Structures are given as structure tokens and as C-alpha cells.
Amino acid sequence: MNPLKKLFKQTAIYGLATVLPRVLNVLLLPLYTGVLQTAGYGRVTVIFSWIAIFNVFLAYGMETAFFRFYNKADDKEKVVSTSLISILGSTVLFAIFALIFQNSMANASNIDVQFIRYAIAIIVLDAFVIIPFAWLRANERPMKYAIIKIVNVVINLGLNLFFLILLPKMVQENPDGFLSALYVPDFEISYIFISNLIASGVTFLLMLPLYLQSKYVFDVALWKQMFKYAWPVLVAGIAFTINEVFDKILLERLLPEDIADSETGMYAACYKLGMFMTLFATAFRMGIEPFFFSHAGTENPQRAYAQITNYFVVLGSIILLGVVVYADLFKVLFIQNSEYWEAMNIVPLILLAGFFLGIYHNLSVWYKVTDKTRYGAFISVIGAFVTIGINFTLIPVLGYMASAIATVLAYGSMMVLSYYFGKSHYPIPYNFRKILFYLGISILFSTLSFYVFNRSIIVGTVLLLLFLGLVYKMENEMLRKIFLRKT
Question: Cα(482)–Cα(209) distance, rounded to whole angstroms?
């Protein structure tokens, strides 16, 4: 099969695994913003931000190391068992210490200790499935991967709907019924984390067979090699997570106490309208990461890498402009409480930031296939410094707009640095005239539609149709080759 056609096929399935669950998960946005006031949603966002940070620590780059060593290993079972033992041991140690120091963690983070307990349990269960999910991807079993991911989110979504909508109504209609034992007034935030915890537990049970089948052989020499490869990925992951979620934590800490939670909630809700770009970029990355490693030894892989990046930019430019044009329709659909709409001006910036991040992931192939992951760590750390520096400096002046600006500049700097270092270590013939053309036109049309013409849907639609016409005229022949060629 044509490698590019295979890539797009796998990307479509991984897109199902990533995009559809997250689209279902997006249904939680109108639910949460309908049930919670802006301050309550702000608190939920900050807790999930801390969970994301600890998820990276407990993965410590072993997922990427697993891909690298599994693909080139003669004894693949040894890679699997060594990785499982490593993650299992470190996660159990974390759970023990976290439970011992839970009160200290609650005081340091200004989070209620009951939410700390929920967070610890969720973090632990999520860590246990890191290697099993990586194993499914490495063995090109995207359908099973997709089904389990979807089951997780369906359970999470269903329980949220039950606890936040159905249960209160049922108890109100029948106060003496057996369900009244499950209902606690003003318990919405706890219900949110209980739903997530149950979904994570079911996911772990579905992935348990890999643990039961493993021979549990721990190869110390192999683990040292894997950790040497993984630690720069860990540093990069921490830095990336800072770029992704630390702005919410800083908003909650740096804004005046009386408005901090509310401003954070508005920012976090409108930030999620940038999910369309994030979903596309994530699905694309899930498809291309195994492709990068498996084709690194083929003849002239750089040409394929360049083509992939070109078409990522084409599709990403369409998504950027399309979401910006119809942002006001999306806000009504996903954020029905108008109290949150005050932060809508961040949406184009968050979409552009997600676009830059997606381009960065495509450009980052050079340090992954050459085992120079320390460059990825360095680049991500630079992005983290940009994020922290701008947020600390400008949040007191600009509020949440400072966080949006910081996100764009952080991912933009990472994108530029990755290209700069990559061109000398692993030259790839990117068509930068085409990339800059699509990127520039999409940003220009988005700016005109959202800021100059004040989000006029008529003007925006005309601009979007013009852009689609340009894409069709310039890319029609190549798209036919990719999707219609059979050999």
C-alpha cells in the first residue's frame, strides 16, 4: 500500500480514537458550564491541570522510549515486560507517598483534600494503561485502541449526565427512593471526579490482559538505555504540559482572589473552542509517530516527511479559518451560559497556537528518528520559559489575554527552533513557500473575519470559500494521487 495512503488510513482510525471521544467529551463543556458558575468551573479546571502535570511525571517519557526500542528489538517481549515493571513500580511508589502527604499537597495547591484523593486515584489508574496503549499503537491495532478510548469517554459522559442532571431530578421527584442515598446537594465537583475515576478504572480493567500475559522479566541494561532515551522526553513533556495547562494555574494564583476562579473559568471554557485544531493535530500526530519510526530506515524518508507536513499545513489552515469564521455559532452550541462569553477574544489566538504546535510536532521528526531527543527537551523548555515569563509579567495587566498571547508565542518559538536545529542535523526538503502561503492567507482571512469585520458570518463565509477555492486549485492533483492511487 502507498505509505502516505496507509498513513492517512491509520490517522483516520486514530482520529476516531482521539477525536470522537473528545468530541463526546466536549458535550461535558455545555454540561459543566450549565451546572457550574464560572468560579466552580475554574476550580475544576485547575484540578485537572494538576492531574495533567502529574500524568507526565508518571509517564516519564517511557511511552516514546517504548516505541523506539520495541520497533528495533529482536526480543520484543523483554521491552514490554521491562516497561510494564518500570511504570508499575514507579506508580505504586507515587501512590504511597501521595497518600502519606495528601494534606500537605492540599495546602500547597489550595485544593480541598477530598479532591486530592480523587486526583491521586485518577493519576494512578491512567499511569497503569500507558504501556498497554503504546503496545496497541506499536502493533498497529488502532481499532481496539479506538474502542477502549471511546468506552472510557462514554462511561465518563454517561456518569456525568447521570450525576449532574438525572440524579437530582429523580431525587426531587421521589425523595424517598433508593437513589436518594447517592445524592448529595452541592456535590457537583465531586461527582465530576467520581465519574472520571470510574471511567479510568474500567479502562484499566480492559487493558489488564497485557499485564496478565507478561512474563515480567526486568532487563536492567535495557531499562537504562530506555531511560537514557526517555528522560529528555520527560523534560520535554513537563515543559509541554506547562505550556498546555500552567496558564490556568497561574491565572488562579496571580489574579485578585475575588475574581481569580471566575476569570479562570471563562478563559478555560473559551479555550476549549480551540479544541478543533487540537483534535486534528493530535489525531495526525497519533498516526504519524509510528510512521516516522517505521519508515526511518527506508530510502529517502525525508521526502515523505516533507509531504506530510505540507498537507498538515493545508488541512490545518482550513480548520483555523473555518472555526474562526463560525466561532459565534460554536460558542452558542458548546457554551450556552453567556457569562463565559466574555473571553471569546482568545479563541483565534488559541487556534493559532494549536496550529503552531501541530506544525512543531511534524517538524520534530528529525530529533526523534536520530535519537537526539535532548533537543526536544531544550526546545520545550524554551517554550515553557516563554509561557511562564509572559504569564507572570502580563497577567496582572492583561488578565487571561496574557495567557492566550503567551500560548501563541510559546508554540511559535518551539516551531521555529525545531526547524532551525533540524535543518542542520537532519535536512528535510520542506516546501516553505507553500507552507508560508497557506499559513499567511489563513491568518490574514481569520484576522479580517474575527477582528476587522467583527465576526460577520457573511464576510467570513466568503473568505472561507475563497480559501477553499485556492486549496482546490493548487492541491487537487496531489490529493487525488494520495487518496485514489491503489499501488
Answer: 37
